[in-house]
Amino acid sequence: MTEFAVHHVPTRRRAGRPPQALLSSARITKAALKLVSHHGYKGLTMAALAKSLNVAPSALYNHVSSKQDVLLLVEDHLMGRVEVCAFATEPWDAAVAKWARSYRDVFAAHLPLIPVIALLPVTNAPATVTMYEAVTQGFLAAGWARESIIDAVVALESFIYGSAYDVNAPEDIFDVGSLASEAPDFSAAVAHRGNPDAAAAIPRNDADAAFTLGLQAMIAGLAATAGPRK
Amino acid sequence: MTEFAVHHVPTRRRAGRPPQALLSSARITKAALKLVSHHGYKGLTMAALAKSLNVAPSALYNHVSSKQDVLLLVEDHLMGRVEVCAFATEPWDAAVAKWARSYRDVFAAHLPLIPVIALLPVTNAPATVTMYEAVTQGFLAAGWARESIIDAVVALESFIYGSAYDVNAPEDIFDVGSLASEAPDFSAAVAHRGNPDAAAAIPRNDADAAFTLGLQAMIAGLAATAGPRK
DNA sequence: ACCTGAACACCGTTCAAGT
DNA sequence: ACCTGAACACCGTTCAAGT
Asked: What CATH number belongs to B79-168+200-225?
């Protein structure tokens, strides 16, 4: 050992230049979205996610603390696709309708995220907060009282989440099968859903019809009971 | 070996007397409910369910085809706890409100069943069909057109499912944390939710407030747009 | 027909060890 | 700080074998 060797500085990075990590929140989010779009949420496992990033599964835990964390990253990314632009240009009721429909459409394709949105704090979800800010401003601009806005938004969101499930319901969800005789009125209502005369079988999107009906009802009802004083 | 032994009839059951099985749908449902009430849905595993019935896990598959099947059994049992009696005695809007609130309360305590209700056909769910029959009769008695009833019920259910999630949301779900400066209007709306003056901090159930607001709005809106002609 | 025991093909997560 | 490899403690489900 020479004295020189003692003073030898081993492979050392220049100050202010952190090591180039293989992973990052952005790369994880992107890989997760790609995995989901190709194989659905059943294909989104920590092992598959790691593989798609050419990394060991345990490496993911240096950047997220759990799979829930990955889902939150994906959720926040998708929240950026919810349309809030109408709140700046259109009347309140039209803007709410546009926002609600795009919100439903985005998460109808990502059902497993609904418990995540509905139950996880918005802290560390910047795009989600941005969405809420735009919505709140739209309500304020329409003359809503500050103290009523969150309740109204939560009520609308509840309807939106439930409607996102309904988009994915099978066509025959209300087929009573052998129980028909015990539920004649319900069976008839199901058979005649949307068309007064049984003969005409018009092609129809049942989920859209229910969503439009409920959305119009809630918007009208909110405007009448909690909206701005005329 | 004697001739007698050859003719010996081994333990044989009398005709028309099926063997007394250890398991049945009713026993499985009951055990599952008990497991959930004590340990939550994370405690409802096929292994735990089998153990509580003193049976091997594989034995369950002689009576249900999957865990989804167990969840459907539990769901249908719980649907019997949803109150439909008001449809026979009270005016339509009051009856709907009572039904919706009990529906929300039942499944707020059973969130993992919501995807099951929302996505699985009602075939083989007799209590669920019975519930729908009573609701349909209530709508018919109030003068609703047959072709609009299912859409209205689906819209109400969507709101109910989303509201069940909201009951379980943490108090701080809208805490923006360090993002407050980027969402001033939203932050203020959250801070003043329910109370006009910031000083008074009245105890308040936020989920109930949003549910009541949304339910009143939707009921009023439905009555105005799709209800019976006056 | 109904149940057991063993096995299968997965999960998410942890942790000592390396750089 | 970040990654690997191996292990852990589970899951739901299947299936040959028994009665």
From this structure: 1.10.357.10
Instruction: List Cβ neighbours of B21 (8 Å cut-off, separation of 6 or more).
Output: none
Asked if residue A21 keeps its beta carbon closer than 7 A to nucleic acid strand D, the reply is yes
Q: What distance in Å separates the CA atoms of residue A228 and residue B4, rounded to the nearest whole number?
A: 95
Domain residue ranges of chain A, discontinuous segments joined by +: 1-64, 79-168+200-225
Q: Which residue in B159, B187, B208 has the most chain A C-beta atoms within 10 A of its own C-beta, making it the best mutation to test that interface?
A: B159
CATH (one of 3.40.980.10, 1.10.10.60, 2.40.110.10, 3.40.50.1820) for B1-64: 1.10.10.60
Segment B197-220 shows an average pLDDT of 89
Q: What is the mean pLDDT of residues A102-126?
A: 97
**Which of B140, B192, B216 has its CB closest to that of A221?**
B216
> pLDDT tens across A164-187, in order?
999 999 999 999 999 999 999 999
pTM > 0.85: yes or no: yes
Query: Could you tell me if B44 and B31 are in contact, meaning their C-beta atoms sit under 8 angstroms apart?
Result: no
